[in-house]
Amino acid sequence: MFDGLLTSLGELMDSPWIYPLIAVISLVDAVVPVFPSEAPLIMAGVYAGSTGSPNLLLILLAAGAGAMAGDHLAYLIGRSAAGRIEAIPPDSRRGRAIAGAKRLLETRGGMALVIGRFIPWGRIATTIVFGAMRYPRARFTVFDAIGVSAWALHGTLMGYIGGHAFEQDPLKGLALGLGLAILASALIELVRWLIARRRGSGRVEVAAEAGADEEADEDADDTTDGAVRETAHDAVDEPDQDRLNARG
């Protein structure tokens, strides 16, 4: 069974149709993420590293072109359906993804496109939010090109390394490539989480300092008010004391 599967895969990888197929898969995944498009990239990279076919550069170009086309389509969808996007329940899976993309856009700007490429459900949520918030299309294209290039290079090279390490056993090469890709994605997510946690701690400290300053201001105001009241009381009492002295 596996021998037949490997033979079929080998024939597909030798076919010129592999490039448009990768482009179409990357495009569809950017709009309707049915399955991770990194898997075909890693698989193509494995065969490129073990047999030399398909061509590594053409894989990158095909994946990048398809992903950019899909991202721009998602951007246009978000731009034309901003009202519907806002109506998505915030506690749903899509709502949480969109809320996360908005926070990412607010804190990272255009770099959110690059980061979103490596987050599950992040890429489509990010591109749709960019469109809904009418982010400038030219800047969107620039940052999207950076994100797509990093994403395509990441998936393809992980497969290429696995294929080159196990030239005679594509299955082991595929397993290694997938493992490296998962490990890299986990490290990226860990770094992102640590940064978010550190920023969250910073915001708590700032809020605490602001609260302390506010309490200090309130104490100062209370002290000032008390001093004013005492001064006013003394000013009222002094004439009364003078009258008593005059009578005596």
UniProtKB/TrEMBL annotation:
Coiled coil location: none
Residue ranges of domain VTT in the record: 35-160
Localisation per UniProt entry: Cell membrane
Keyword Plastid: no
Membrane-crossing segments per the record: 17-36, 142-162, 174-195
Keyword Transmembrane helix: yes
Family annotation (Pfam families): VTT_dom
Residue ranges, compositional bias (Acidic residues): 211-224
Main location as per UniProt: membrane
Keywords, ordered alphabetically: Cell membrane, Membrane, Transmembrane, Transmembrane helix
Segments of this protein annotated with the region Disordered: 206-248
One GO term describing the cellular component: plasma membrane
Bias (Basic and acidic residues): 227-248
Family in the record: Belongs to the DedA family.
PANTHER family: ALKALINE PHOSPHATASE LIKE PROTEIN, UNDECAPRENYL PHOSPHATE TRANSPORTER A
The protein, known as: Membrane protein DedA with SNARE-associated domain
